[in-house]
Amino acid sequence: MLQPEELGQIEKKLHQAGLKLTPQRRATVKTLVRLHESHLSAEELFAKVKEAEPEIGLATVYRTLEVLAELKIVNRVSFEDGITRYDLRTEDSGHFHHHLLCQICGAVEEIHEDLLVDVEMKVKEKYGFEVADHRLTFLGVCAKCRAKRQRHLQ
Amino acid sequence: MLQPEELGQIEKKLHQAGLKLTPQRRATVKTLVRLHESHLSAEELFAKVKEAEPEIGLATVYRTLEVLAELKIVNRVSFEDGITRYDLRTEDSGHFHHHLLCQICGAVEEIHEDLLVDVEMKVKEKYGFEVADHRLTFLGVCAKCRAKRQRHLQ
DNA sequence: CTCACTGCAAATATTTTGCATCGGA
DNA sequence: TCCGATGCAAAATATTTGCAGTGAG
After folding, report:
1. Are residues B72 and B2 in the same domain?
2. B138 touching chain A per CB within 8 A
3. Residues B149-153: contacts with CB under 8 Å, at least 24 apart
4. B137 and B87 within one domain
5. Range of the domain at B132
6. Would the CB atoms of A138 and B131 count as touching at under 8 Å?
7. How much is the pLDDT for A150?
8. Residues B112, B101: one domain?
């Protein structure tokens, strides 16, 4: 929805950090914004970026992702499968988002609602731990697969 | 605390699943229970098990961990560093536990308190997602490092 | 006695790095 | 122009697999 906006924002951030805006970085960021719902791995992103920028190398994608993670533009996440995925931080709210991973169909849905405000406060008070960020994934059965299961039980 | 108890429980589970109780599996499970607070990687666990069972191979440790994960005896977890770690499920409560990962010193602390009862209910109601399990890690600064930081600021 | 299990080494998969070259600022 | 950024290939890690031999049940 606010994708072009985000694209500009991110390029600005890169610029402010004193980094060069190479065509490879542009293409990588652009693809990342376009497919931000997909939770791509480095390899997958590489394949997508290559469509627009065939000269790009996999190492550059890794290096760009590293830079983006340092600038807090993306989060590294991993869903049990040992592959690191990259998740664009939503720029609209300063808030994190959570994931719903369906164990039947493998779909990952995002929840853009901070459910942990109270919990984080409790962690701070009770354990003296200052929370800066979090990773929360629920594993279970998504609405679609639940419906499907119902149908099959008849 | 209830380690020997757990050890027996786990071996019983393996047996019930029709799996052989080889010396390698015994040694692996025993080490896992003994060091259950360490969040070991396969490689680290291998090194530890090797002390008691020098003949064991790394592949066996991987294969044993796979079996244990299938039987829900361990959870796979990963803390952003690309390495899969294995976390013994606490047998005492049926409940999950959460992690506090200190970004300064790298320590991982466990919280054995289910903070998400309300949140999971909300997820079910609002998103139609049936939660079976979750992974929750807070990233931040642990109490120890906070104290250290205070001292250095003086 | 049988077949699941194992060790070892080779194969894969994933990510990082060295280095000569290129090109954005 | 200059130094950061890139591509490529090689290296470093992490994990899986094929296979012949072994031993738990």
Report:
1. yes
2. yes
3. B149/B104
4. no
5. 94-154
6. yes
7. 84
8. yes
Residue that is last in its domain, among B91, B113, B139: B91
B52 CB neighbours strand C below 7 A? no
pLDDT one-digit tens code per residue, B11-23? 999 999 999 999 9
pTM (two decimals)? 0.90
A57: its two tokens: 């190398």
Asked if residue A76 and residue A25 are part of one domain, the reply reads yes
pLDDT (tens digit per residue) in A92-132: 555 678 999 998 888 899 998 889 999 999 999 999 999 99
Same domain for B42 and B110: no
Point out which residues pair with B47 in neighbouring strands: none
Cβ contact A18 with chain C strand, < 7 A? no
What percent of chain A shows pLDDT beyond 70? 92
Find the residue in B nearest to A41 (Cα).
Answer: B82
Number of domains in chain A: 2
The residue whose two tokens read 């929360």 is A136
Interchain pair B136, A134: CB under 8 A? yes
- The answer to whether the CB atoms of B146 and A128 lie below 8 A apart is yes
Q: Residue B85 and residue B3: Cα distance in Å, rounded?
A: 20
Taking contacts as CB-CB distances below 8 angstroms, the residues of chain B near A123 are: 100, 111, 115, 138
Distance CA B125, CA B142 (A): 34
